[in-house]
Input
Amino acid sequence: MKLWVKQRFTWKVALLAILALPLAWATIKIISYQQLDNLQHLKEKQSYLAELGNVNAPKAGAVRPNIIFILFDDLGYGDFGVTGSRAIATPTIDTLAREGLTLTQFYAPAPVCTPSRAGFLTGRLPSRAGLSHVVFPDGHPFNWVLQLLGSNVHLPREEITLA
Output
Protein backbone atom coordinates (compact mmCIF):
# COMPACT_ATOMS: atom_id res chain seq x y z
CA MET A 1 0.00 0.00 0.00
CA LYS A 2 2.75 2.46 0.87
CA LEU A 3 4.59 1.65 -2.35
CA TRP A 4 1.53 2.61 -4.45
CA VAL A 5 1.20 5.98 -2.62
CA LYS A 6 4.88 6.69 -3.18
CA GLN A 7 4.62 5.93 -6.94
CA ARG A 8 1.53 8.14 -7.29
CA PHE A 9 3.28 10.99 -5.49
CA THR A 10 6.32 10.66 -7.75
CA TRP A 11 4.07 10.78 -10.83
CA LYS A 12 2.42 14.00 -9.57
CA VAL A 13 5.79 15.61 -8.87
CA ALA A 14 7.03 14.70 -12.35
CA LEU A 15 3.88 16.12 -13.96
CA LEU A 16 4.18 19.31 -11.93
CA ALA A 17 7.82 19.69 -12.97
CA ILE A 18 6.91 19.21 -16.64
CA LEU A 19 4.17 21.85 -16.38
CA ALA A 20 6.35 24.26 -14.39
CA LEU A 21 9.16 24.39 -16.96
CA PRO A 22 7.20 26.29 -19.67
CA LEU A 23 5.78 28.60 -17.01
CA ALA A 24 9.28 29.35 -15.70
CA TRP A 25 10.54 29.92 -19.26
CA ALA A 26 7.63 32.30 -20.01
CA THR A 27 8.19 34.21 -16.76
CA ILE A 28 11.90 34.67 -17.48
CA LYS A 29 11.20 35.75 -21.07
CA ILE A 30 8.61 38.34 -19.96
CA ILE A 31 10.81 39.72 -17.18
CA SER A 32 13.86 39.97 -19.45
CA TYR A 33 11.88 41.35 -22.45
CA GLN A 34 13.52 44.25 -24.23
CA GLN A 35 12.29 45.67 -27.51
CA LEU A 36 15.30 46.22 -29.73
CA ASP A 37 15.17 49.45 -31.70
CA ASN A 38 17.20 49.87 -34.87
CA LEU A 39 20.02 52.20 -33.73
CA GLN A 40 21.27 52.83 -37.28
CA HIS A 41 17.76 53.89 -38.33
CA LEU A 42 17.54 56.08 -35.22
CA LYS A 43 20.77 57.93 -36.18
CA GLU A 44 19.47 58.40 -39.74
CA LYS A 45 16.20 59.76 -38.34
CA GLN A 46 18.00 62.29 -36.16
CA SER A 47 20.12 63.44 -39.10
CA TYR A 48 17.07 63.71 -41.38
CA LEU A 49 15.09 65.72 -38.84
CA ALA A 50 18.03 68.10 -38.28
CA GLU A 51 18.22 68.76 -42.04
CA LEU A 52 14.46 69.13 -42.28
CA GLY A 53 14.46 71.70 -39.47
CA ASN A 54 16.92 73.87 -41.40
CA VAL A 55 14.98 73.65 -44.69
CA ASN A 56 11.51 74.23 -43.25
CA ALA A 57 12.35 77.00 -40.80
CA PRO A 58 9.31 79.30 -40.63
CA LYS A 59 9.70 82.68 -42.28
CA ALA A 60 8.93 85.79 -40.24
CA GLY A 61 5.20 86.54 -40.30
CA ALA A 62 4.30 83.21 -41.95
CA VAL A 63 0.90 81.83 -40.98
CA ARG A 64 0.73 78.08 -40.52
CA PRO A 65 -2.57 76.23 -40.95
CA ASN A 66 -4.47 74.95 -37.94
CA ILE A 67 -5.25 71.26 -38.35
CA ILE A 68 -7.34 69.23 -35.95
CA PHE A 69 -7.11 65.50 -36.55
CA ILE A 70 -9.61 63.42 -34.59
CA LEU A 71 -9.47 59.63 -34.67
CA PHE A 72 -12.44 57.68 -33.34
CA ASP A 73 -12.57 53.93 -32.81
CA ASP A 74 -15.66 51.99 -33.90
CA LEU A 75 -17.41 54.99 -35.44
CA GLY A 76 -19.74 54.76 -38.41
CA TYR A 77 -20.31 57.37 -41.10
CA GLY A 78 -23.79 58.29 -39.84
CA ASP A 79 -22.86 58.67 -36.16
CA PHE A 80 -22.50 62.48 -36.26
CA GLY A 81 -25.25 65.03 -36.66
CA VAL A 82 -23.44 66.53 -39.66
CA THR A 83 -23.63 63.16 -41.46
CA GLY A 84 -27.27 62.49 -40.64
CA SER A 85 -27.45 61.07 -37.13
CA ARG A 86 -30.64 61.91 -35.25
CA ALA A 87 -29.92 59.57 -32.34
CA ILE A 88 -26.61 61.10 -31.18
CA ALA A 89 -26.20 64.83 -30.50
CA THR A 90 -22.73 66.01 -31.60
CA PRO A 91 -22.98 69.83 -31.75
CA THR A 92 -19.26 70.58 -31.30
CA ILE A 93 -18.14 68.10 -33.95
CA ASP A 94 -20.90 69.39 -36.25
CA THR A 95 -19.66 72.97 -35.83
CA LEU A 96 -16.06 71.93 -36.57
CA ALA A 97 -17.25 70.11 -39.69
CA ARG A 98 -19.31 73.06 -40.96
CA GLU A 99 -16.51 75.60 -40.41
CA GLY A 100 -13.68 73.47 -41.80
CA LEU A 101 -12.95 70.73 -44.28
CA THR A 102 -14.74 67.42 -43.95
CA LEU A 103 -13.39 64.29 -45.61
CA THR A 104 -16.32 62.00 -46.38
CA GLN A 105 -14.59 58.98 -47.87
CA PHE A 106 -11.64 57.68 -45.94
CA TYR A 107 -10.12 54.36 -44.97
CA ALA A 108 -8.21 53.51 -41.82
CA PRO A 109 -4.80 51.84 -42.15
CA ALA A 110 -5.96 48.89 -40.02
CA PRO A 111 -9.18 47.46 -38.56
CA VAL A 112 -8.09 47.91 -34.92
CA CYS A 113 -6.91 50.86 -32.85
CA THR A 114 -3.14 50.54 -32.25
CA PRO A 115 -2.10 49.79 -35.85
CA SER A 116 -4.42 52.56 -37.11
CA ARG A 117 -2.75 55.08 -34.83
CA ALA A 118 0.71 53.83 -35.84
CA GLY A 119 -0.25 54.21 -39.50
CA PHE A 120 -1.57 57.75 -39.06
CA LEU A 121 1.37 58.86 -36.93
CA THR A 122 4.06 57.46 -39.22
CA GLY A 123 2.38 57.58 -42.64
CA ARG A 124 3.41 53.96 -43.13
CA LEU A 125 1.60 50.65 -43.25
CA PRO A 126 1.19 49.56 -39.62
CA SER A 127 3.22 46.40 -40.14
CA ARG A 128 6.11 48.47 -41.56
CA ALA A 129 5.79 50.89 -38.65
CA GLY A 130 6.35 47.96 -36.28
CA LEU A 131 2.82 47.61 -34.87
CA SER A 132 0.44 45.27 -36.66
CA HIS A 133 -1.51 44.27 -33.55
CA VAL A 134 -3.27 45.89 -30.60
CA VAL A 135 -0.95 46.95 -27.78
CA PHE A 136 -2.22 47.11 -24.22
CA PRO A 137 -0.96 49.11 -21.21
CA ASP A 138 2.22 47.97 -19.48
CA GLY A 139 1.63 44.98 -17.23
CA HIS A 140 -1.44 43.75 -19.14
CA PRO A 141 -1.46 39.96 -19.65
CA PHE A 142 -1.96 40.33 -23.44
CA ASN A 143 1.28 42.33 -23.61
CA TRP A 144 3.00 39.40 -21.92
CA VAL A 145 1.84 37.18 -24.77
CA LEU A 146 3.20 39.70 -27.29
CA GLN A 147 6.50 39.79 -25.42
CA LEU A 148 6.67 35.98 -25.45
CA LEU A 149 6.21 36.09 -29.23
CA GLY A 150 8.92 38.78 -29.54
CA SER A 151 6.51 41.41 -30.91
CA ASN A 152 6.80 45.15 -30.36
CA VAL A 153 4.82 46.59 -27.47
CA HIS A 154 5.49 50.22 -28.38
CA LEU A 155 6.27 52.22 -31.49
CA PRO A 156 9.98 51.84 -32.29
CA ARG A 157 12.00 54.92 -31.32
CA GLU A 158 13.45 55.32 -34.79
CA GLU A 159 10.05 55.91 -36.41
CA ILE A 160 9.44 59.45 -37.64
CA THR A 161 5.98 60.55 -36.57
CA LEU A 162 3.63 63.29 -37.66
CA ALA A 163 4.44 65.24 -34.52
Notes: The first helix runs from residue 2 to 31.
